[in-house]
Amino acid sequence: MTSTIRPGRVLFVAGFATFLATFNETFLNVALNPIMRDMSVNAGVVQWVTTAYMLAAAVMVPVAGFLYKKVRTSRLMALSLVLLVAGSIIGGVAPNFAILVVARVVQALGTGMIVPVGMNLTLAVAPKNKIGVYMGIIGAMTTLGPAFGPIVAGALLAHGTWHTLFFALAALSAICLVCSVLWVGDIAQLTHPHMDALSVVLAAIGLIGLLYGVSTVFSGQLVAAVVALVIGVVALVVFVLRQRRIPEPFLNLEPFGNRAFVLGVLLVIAALMTVFSMNILLPLFMESALGFTPLQAALTLLPACLVSCVLSPVAGKVFDRFGVGWLVSVGMAVIACFVLALSFTGGSTTSVRIVLLYAPAIAGCACVMGPAQSYALSSLDRRMYPHGVTIVSTTFQIAGCVGSSVFVGILSAVSAAHEASGESVAVGTAAGFDIACRVAFVVDVLGFIAALALARVEAKAKAAAAAGVEVSEAREQDLEHAGEPSLADAMKRDVYAVTAADSAYDALVVIVRNGTTGIPVLDEHHHAVGFVTDGDIMRTLIGDTNDKASMAYVYALWVQGDKFAQRVAGLRQTNVMEICTHRVVTVNEHATIRRVCEMLAGNRIKKLPVTGGEDGKQVVGVISRSDLMRYMVTTVAPADE
User: Fold this and answer.
1) Which helix (DSSP H) or strand (DSSP E) does residue 623 occupy?
2) Is 150 within 8 Å of 275 (Cβ atoms)?
3) Rounded to the nearest 5 degrees, what angle is found at the Cα of 102, between the Cα atoms of 99 and 103?
4) How does pLDDT run across 144-172, given as a tens digit for each residue?
5) Cα(269)–Cα(500) distance, integer angstroms
6) Distance between CA 268 and CA 177 in Å, rounded?
């Protein structure tokens, strides 16, 4: 673990690496024709430059989730970037097509780890009140990477060969590697899990079968595609069944039991399918149907990329302040409307019109991507973060491969049908583009339905939080009339707290002086806006955000004296709102003891702020498990006495 973890620097490395990883998925798209000429291969063979990359990256994503808990964070991030650098150099000097494919696989071994590791790093260092902003930046990188790939490649190809693309990526990756070595510490707490070899094999067969089948279904190899799909689905079913039976699963599937997480993942899939497919469909349409040069097509995509770059962090801030429901609903509606509008462009549209229709669609993606994955992951317990990230990152690869394969396949099939009837390539491509956009519109409508469902889930959660997760007043009255003991009899009315303007050090002092383990954070109205525990402070001291802080590490810092004193002093510069829990579970002062027990057990927490006062939301006391135990012992006598 490094002596100092600076979230801004870690975020820069995670964002830069994520950009490079997703950029690498599309930057060779405009270079396929030159590669075909130089390597003397046809279109069916050259597609393996992309297909082999996507398959290898998809397999590495779940492996990365395992390695995140097995290998020191600094080494794992460095290793992934070393593989990206090495693969890029090999690709730049590749003497034949086989070596070029090997180079792409080596790259994928690195990039397949970069996205999940980068997301885990971001979640680990993000202040709790800025998760949306931080994840919004990462979301922007996952959108900008594939969008900028063809743009940068088109510009470089105007002055060099496809070899130049690999060397340019190697240089950028080397810069990111240096930053990673300097700034990324050992953030994750290692648990050294056991790897189930059979699970790895099943996951690899399942993902390769699924993605290969989808990518070849429109290529005329229907039998091979169906066989691959069947094998992939069967392997994935066996994989899921095995994860439920073995004591230490390779991939914990518990996040799928969380409805908010599932809906968030579905939204990410819908948005990514649109982004990845449009980044391929639009250049094909502009070059084949409209006669644009690769550079002109790339420059037409540039304004939409800039819009996404600016809007993604803004969407993260909006999410942090107002929530996810209406934001993703509006975003999916915008995507659907403008993708449908693109399907009516025809074969004589202009660059300006494409910009005016494509930029809003990408803006809608920016409103969906970051907030949806932020809400999905934040809805999980922290112990589930690495598993949730692995699932989300795997969907990135699946959505990208499936989206591009399906929509490009539709365009190619429709175009071929028109050409067979005697029409020109331009007319066939325009018709294929229109149909592909309309199918994408259907996918986006399904995403909009998922967004509405997620909005309802969030609304219910907010209503429950606003009500203090209470039972109804009538239920409470019924219980009181039944003679059940009241919370007022057991709670402590001395409220030890800090304000939202106080520092983490102020919270530490209050906790220590009053011999407690956690205190509420109050606003000017005495309402609870957070809850900070001794564990939150300990994790801040060691630069960790996992549930289990290492006491051995804290002791080691304390022995070192000066370093530990510097960390404690640094708490004065940290606002308590950056480290506390924001979603505070409270209970009304009129609740019964039975209800308090249910809430403490159901939420797996040790303390609850008690609300009441004039508006019913002021913190008037605190109840803890130990308070309840003490109350039970002193008020209920055993029957034999």
Assistant:
1) strand 618-624
2) no
3) 90
4) 787 678 778 878 887 888 999 999 999 99
5) 37
6) 28
